Every structure is written in C-alpha cells, then in structure tokens.
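Q: Hi! First time doing this. I have a protein sequence and I read that you can turn it into a structure. Is that right? Here it is:
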Amino acid sequence: MHDARLPDGFGIRLDPKVRAYSGGRVLIGGSPMRMLKLAPAAAGMIGDGYLEVVDSQTAVVARRLLDSGVANPRPMSTPSPSDVTVVVPIRDNVAGIARLVPALRGLEVVVVDDGSAVPLELPDLTGCSARVTLLRHDRSRGPAAARNTGLRHATTPFVAFLDSDVLPQTGWLERMLGHFSDPAVALVAPRIVALEPEGSALARYEHARSSLDLGRKESAVRSGSPVSYVPSAAMLARRDVLTDMGGFDEAMHVAEDVDLCWRLQETGWRLRYEPVARVAHDHRVSFGKWFTRKMFYGTGAAPLAARHEGMVPPLAMSRWTLLSVLAAASCTRLGALSSLATFLVTVLRLRRTFADLDQPNRIAVALAARGFGNGARQVASAMCRSYWPVTLVAGVFSRRVRRLVVVVAAVEGVTDWATHREPGGLGPLRHSVFKRLDDVAYGTGLWRGAIRARDPRALAPRIGK
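A: Yes, that's right. Below is the predicted 3D structure, encoded as structure tokens:
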C-alpha cells in the first residue's frame, strides 16, 4: 500500500519557497534543495500552484511532487476518530493521567503502567467520556515496551501514542487523520508546544527551543531533512503497519522514535509533520532535570548510528562547501581568497546545470550563496554542540581559535534566537546562554554514548563530493 495511487479529490500545493522557472517546467526548492524538471503537460496541471487528483496522470504528478518535497498535501477526507485507540505509557505520573484522559473525549484509551513504584490506580474519571483500559508491567521495561503492549491490545485501524505529560489541544486528532487519505502515509505527528509557556527564564527558553518542538512549517519527515524524525511524545500511526514492523525497538530506551521513523522510511512509507495539530507538553524546567534530559537525548546517537549507519552525522555537506567555510573561518587573506575561489567554482558548476533556465547566473549565485550559508551554520553549530570538546581543546592551545569560538558562539546564539523567538520570550543574550548550555549537554551525551558503546560512528561527519 505504500506505493498506492492517491485518491481522486486529493490535492497538493507547491511549497511557498519553491521557485518556478521556464514557464513552470523547472521547480527548485524542497529540503534538501533539488531541481525538478516537469514535462509541459505536467507543468500545465499545476497552474497556480495547486493540483487536484482527478485521474491516473494527475495522481502520478502529485505523487512525484510530494515525494520530491516541493509540495505539501491537501487531503480531501478524514477517517473517524472512532477508528483511533490512544495508547498512554506511564510510570509514576498519576497527575498526568488525571489531566490527560478527560481531554480524550469519546476515544478508546489504553493506559500501560510500566512498573510504577506504586501500582497505578486510575483517578476518579467521573464525567469523562473516554473508555479507559488499564494494563500493567510488573517491572519497568521502558517506554518502547509499554507502547508495544498498548499497540498489541488495540484493534482499531489507527493508534495514537501520547505520553502522560502531554495535553492535546482542540482539533489535534482530526488535523492529523486527514493525512491518512493518502494510502502511502503510515505516520503523522503534531507540533509539540509548551504547556506553560511563561514562567522562569528556562521555561521561556524551552517554549522557544524545546527539542520536541519541530517548528511551524509543515513537512515530510525524512532523514537528512530539517524534520528528520518526530518524537513519540505524540504521534498517530496505522496500527497494521506498526504491528507488521514489530512496533518500537524495545532494546532502545532513547531515540526509539527516531529508529521507528527511519525504519518506516526505509520500507517506503511516507511520514508527515502537521504543525497545525498541536499537543502541549509539560516541559522539564528545573535546571538539573533539564540538563540531564538533554544529555540523555545525546546518548541516543550511538545506538542509532549502529542501526542506521551514516544517517546521524553531526556534520553533512560537500567537501567543497566545507573547505570554503573553513578557509573563510581562518580569518586570513589567503583563506578569504581560497573561499572566494571555491565559491566561484561552485557558481560556474551550477551555471552549467542551469544553462537552459531563465537567468542562470542569478540562480547559480543564489544557490551557491545558500549552500555556503547552510554550510557555515552547520560548522558553527557543530563547533558549539557535537564537537564542543574538540573546540575546547583547540581553544586552549590557540588564541586565534579562542577568538573565533567567541565570535561563532555569539553569532550562532543570536541567529538561533532570531529564528526561534516567541512573543514574551527571552532576549538574545539569555537565549544564547541557554543555547550554549543546551549544546554542551547534548554534546556531552553524544560523546558519552559513543565512548560507552565503543563505536565512533555517531561522531563521524558525512562529507560528500
């Protein structure tokens, strides 16, 4: 079914950032960016950027645009919420269940107590219309095992996984269900926002920069893209697909959601991120718990690298982009000239690729500049995050490196603030301080996980031609 035809009435719309050239026959955009060449008949189907499936030909074009990442779906029907079972793994969080279950009005709910110290007893749910079943593990086996227990108990076509520390907002389920009118979609996830966006400085930072919040932009979920996975704190999936795949990997106690997404991708299923659907999360906002959790997330890279080799690089770009960025970062005249020369070579190579398009020089310069900018951001982030121990050692022995690190840390922090700031959030200085602490915590977990596993693959960059 993951290669099934899109149904009649299904619509797609070109992403607003996609640019059309040569009368719409060439589209440039998506993430990672690509160039898509269309036959004149296919270009004519798109018109003002919207295409509705009405026959086999339009279905093929719509699928190609979706899979290329240059278009987003506009579903035409929605399965019923009665087709959904909600699975809630829990351990020692009765208050979370008392808050969550009343919000699941009219739904089938399976609560799996994963070995709570005191066996869970459901709170008084008088007036709650959800139909709740309680299952229990005698000892804690981890959230992946708890979700799998709920999955095996469910009988509905779809299963939603919600952690006990979340609270879905109005319309969350209906918004996601619509995506399943595409028979190739196996999993959809909402945007996860802060339950309490105000409060301490750390709470406001998490509101803007939580690891669970994947942003405002709808997207396909693919490894190597800006939305490379979705967190299991809130997701909706086809029950039969997950059952056939064996559900979550119970050997993983961190990053099991990333592993699930990538296994689905590898078998040809499509996944979507739908930010219009929202689920609020009770973020950890005491510093010790927050810092420890960030380190815990970092340890997930090692088991992922072992299962999905080459898919979790801290740095991924072409060698020419890397050389250009490093040359510019040297802050020397020779470095600047080398970076400029590399940039011009890139422009000339792109110019040949786009020779048949309108304004090939302008397109080549714009894309080369974008590639350099993306590369610079990756290197800056890696210096402060994944490779911060290496950066620290280099800074101890080199005054030039110390100066560069101070500049990079400040600029990257302010850029991150400008990209993610929310109304009522922190100013650039405090945001940057928390961002640096966030990066140190994750990087520490990354190195700890790699050393513990005696496997350096999670630390290896991916440098292409």
